[in-house]
Amino acid sequence: MKRYSEISLEKFNRLKDRNDYLILAFESSCDETAVAITKGREVLSSIIFSQIDIHKAYGGVVPEIASRNHVEVIDKVLDEALEKANLKLKDIDLIAVTKGAGLLGALLVGVCYAKALAYALQIPFIGINHIKGHLAANFIKYPELEYPFICLIASGGHTEILKVDSFQKAKILGETVDDAVGEAFDKVARVLGLPYPGGPEIDKLAKEGKPTYKLTRPFKGKDHFNFSYSGLKTGVINIVHNANQKGEEINKADLARSFQDEAIGFLVDNTIRAALENNIKKIVIAGGVAANSYLRSEFERVCKKEKIDLYIPPIALCTDNAAMIGVAAFEEIKEGANLDDLSLDADPSL
Ligand code: KG4
Ligand code: ZN
Prior knowledge:
It is a single chain. By secondary structure, the chain is α/β, with parallel strands linked by helices. The chain has helices at 4-15, 52-56, 63-85, 104-121, 130-141, 181-191, 198-206, 230-246, 252-277, 293-306, 315-318, 323-334, and strands at 22-27, 32-39, 42-50, 94-100, 125-129, 149-154, 159-166, 169-175, 282-286, 309-311. The chain has two domains: 4-136 and 319-334, 2-Layer Sandwich (Nucleotidyltransferase, domain 5), CATH 3.30.420.40; 149-279, ATPase, nucleotide binding domain (Nucleotidyltransferase, domain 5). The strands form two sheets. A five-stranded mixed sheet has the order 3-2-1-4-5, with helices on both faces. The site of zinc ion (ZN) has 5 residues, from helix 5.
């Protein structure tokens, strides 16, 4: 009798050069349980169960609660994804799953589920880097997108500018030396007493404010593309503490707007400079912070002025979903990535 490893390899070898095979993808790295079915760069179904309401009471994601909830809902989310695509498990050709980075317990739910299902169905599976998933979200909206391009990854855990020559070949041009931009949004929101998740709340509140507070952006005038967000965050904390000590009111909308202008301005300035200096007039944005309305309008404005082509996924594809994981798997396989075996482990710090 043939073993799983032989059967899955045979099946993988038969499908890897095609672009019409069906991928069932799982994403459970943080507080979204997501399942999608994709074919090439096309999404047949994408279901997301968000745990935001569960974690709101704690002001942030509680890892243990996240893992337990993934276990509870993953079956139902899978059923819904199959039903929406009008497919059965037997139709699926390959399984993809986020292997990291993220919360270990949360990742393990997806990885173990994907491995068990791949074994039961005797089909190949592949583990995907979550950040590459965010990048792949762009291929869903723009199937015609071609390399090379400059990519800004702006998420809760990453802030990076990459020169991307292919899905498997990217060079880091700049990155944060401390907090990620999304992390800074979340921490500042907490200081302002806004509910979790903070990014969208600051986005909303900033619309009612003016940039009246002075915050200093680090690295101004420097010739590298790195970021630093802990100083901006501390600047906000100091303003709030000083006002509290003096018994003064702060204007939360103005402070949110002042922070957002600097935080997003930093992303825009560095990314545009990276594109111009590398002579690549094509910018691709990825990650949860790409949902920010000011980021979207600022990039549009500046790219138009500099005659740079801009690619930003729709808001629903900016935050965590499994469709981007399915498409990332397709892109990796197209460029020669191999399947994984049942020893694949979750890697929280990938
Ligand atoms: O990419 P993502 O799902 O997280 C990681 O994979 O790390 O993005 C989540 C981050 C959070 O920090 C959240 O506050 C931020 O993206 N975010 C936003 C907005 N929507 C989500 N930040 C600013 N404005 C938004 N509209
Ligand atoms: Zn993410």
